[in-house]
Structure formats: C-alpha cells, structure tokens
Amino acid sequence: MTKKVLVLPGDGIGPEIMAAAQQVLEAVIAKQGLAIELDHALVGGAAIDAEGAPVSDATIAKAKAADAILLGAVGGYKWDGLEMAKRPEKGLLRLRADLDLFSNLRPAILYPQLAEASTLKPEVVSGLDILIVRELTSGIYFGQPRGIRVNEQGEREGFNTACYTESQIRRIAKSAFEAAMQRNKKLCSVDKANVLEATVLWREVVSDLAKDYPEVELSHMYVDNAAMQLVRAPKQFDVMVTGNMFGDILSDCAAMLTGSIGMLPSASLNAEGLGMYEPIHGSAPDIAGKDVANPLATILSVAMMLRYSLKEEAAAKQIEQAVSKVLDQGYRTSDIQQSGCQLLGTKAMGEAVVAAL
Ligand code: IPM
Ligand code: MG
Question: Using H for helix, E for strand and C for coil, what is the string for 188-218?
Fold first, then answer.
C-alpha cells in the first residue's frame, strides 16, 4: 500500500531546507522503489498569509490522514507583532496537540567529523550519543489558565500554568524507558522537584514506572544541574526524559554539543506511531533566502521518518550513511566552521547527499 507523507515547508529557511530534504527523499524512493507519495500544505506564517490561520482545518485533516508529516520551520519577523493565538508557532503547536504527538525524540549525536567544530573540547564530546525525550503536548506550553490580565492592584500580569497529570507523565516516561531499553539502559529524568509540585508528581510517577523496567538504571536530576552537566560532562547521559519546556531548552543546549544546531533531527510521535519529523532548529529569518542554511537536520529527519513511521530501516540507514559520507568528503555549510573544509550552500549540500546515496 502506498504511504502518504505530508510535507509542510513553513517559513524562513523552511522552504530551502525542505527542498533539499525532499530531493534526498525522492532519490531514496526511486533507488529503493518505495511506495511513498508526497503531498504539500502550508503552515506558520505562510499559512497565515494565504489561508488566514497558522494551520488550516484542511491541513490538520490532511495531516491526520497521512502516515507521516515532514515539517521545516515556522515563524519570522513579519508575524512577530501578532497576538499569541495568531502567531505562526500556533500552527506547529496545534499540529502537535491535535495529532497528540506527545513523545518528542531529540537525538544529539556527534559525528566524529565534527568533533573539532563543537564549542566544547573534542575529548568532552567525541563519541557523544544522547537522546532527549521531551514531553510535547502538555505542561506549561498548554496549561490553562494562561494569559495577560490586570490584577487586583491594577498592574498588568502575565501568567501560565505548569501542570502534568499522572497519565501524561506515565506515557512519556514509558516512551523514555522503552527507548532506554533499545540503547544503553540508562535513563535520567529531569525535573525541578525541589520547587515545583508538578514535577514532584513527575518524579513520583517516573520512579513508580521504573519497577516495570528493572534493567534500566534510573536517575533524577534537577534541571539547572542537568543544564550544567550537559556542558560539563555530556557523555554521562544516555536517555534523558523531561517536560515540555525543560526539554525545549535542554535540547537546544545538547544540539550545540554536536557542532551545530543545524545537525539535529527530531521525531514527534503519538500512541499509534503517526509521527511528525522536523529539524529542532527554527526558521532563522536572518539567513532565509540566502542559500546558506544547513539542510542536514531536515535530511536526517527524513531518515527518522523512514525508520519510525514508514518502517523503511534500510532507506533510513542509507540516508544517514550518505550524510556521514558528505562530512567525510569535507563538505560543510556556513554554520560549521572548520579549516580545510569546503563550504557549500543549502542546495549544493542537498545535491551532495543525493550524490552520496
Ligand atoms: C522547538 C521550537 C518550538 C517549541 C517553537 C518554534 C514553538 O523551539 O520545536 O523546539 O518551543 O517547541
Ligand atoms: Mg526549541
């Protein structure tokens, strides 16, 4: 049966990195004779301009009917002044919420070719391979009530609600324990249980679930310490699991260990295995349209999509090997400054990966 992939390029560098990633996907489809069909729709600012909302009901319906979704990035200066509910980011957040994509897998792997490109010493990061499992559809990102109000003293006050139910914690913890079982069986749960009740419960539920995974070595860490440990000695981690906002922050931090945030893919999965795949970086409006963005995070997201949602492991591996090969060949985009390497634009980097396939 033909599988359907919905492609949502989005804004900023989104269309450029997606064009490169799509070329790679099409090359793999042709090479391996895969039955995969692509459809396209708008998200973010592009959707606001053309359809009046950051994601339309029609696009949500298409996404629900697809086997997987490939997303570029959303947001840009043009839409920065809009009220919260109408911002481009809401398109992404609605897709995550409506499709119940609660389990966000963000691997941070250091390609050995990039050890010198990290801002940390090569010996601190070489061999780095960690997986951040971020809860993606609840927590402070979605908690109610929220808003900006005038309080009793007549002063304006912004407020959000950080909350997690037991079942929300249990299902993301289960994802993380399962992932740890596939890896080195070490799981670090990150919270702020010394201050926030929502994470006191988090720690309790994660600890309770650990009984079902006796082989997994579970530890707990406060988020401030975790941020420090990530830059001090990142190789102590195998799998990290945390809530929505801490995961947002720690995954950017982990990304930089690998040389560039332009290298990190992600998968956001629901309980049925439907997934949305996107680079963890943003739309980078400052470099949009200049053919300088690194498309490798999006290309590696295609590999994750082939692996997790489309069950095409061989094709996924082929892409990952091709990415490694172009790095071996010394090709880099401008986000990674390494002496003796050849600088390529977005399009040329996509073509180099296709050639390496
Ligand atoms: C991410 C991004 C998003 C988030 C933004 C664009 C809404 O930073 O995917 O990490 O905060 O989740
Ligand atoms: Mg982020």
Answer: EEEECCCCCHHHHHHHHHHHHHHHHCCCCEE
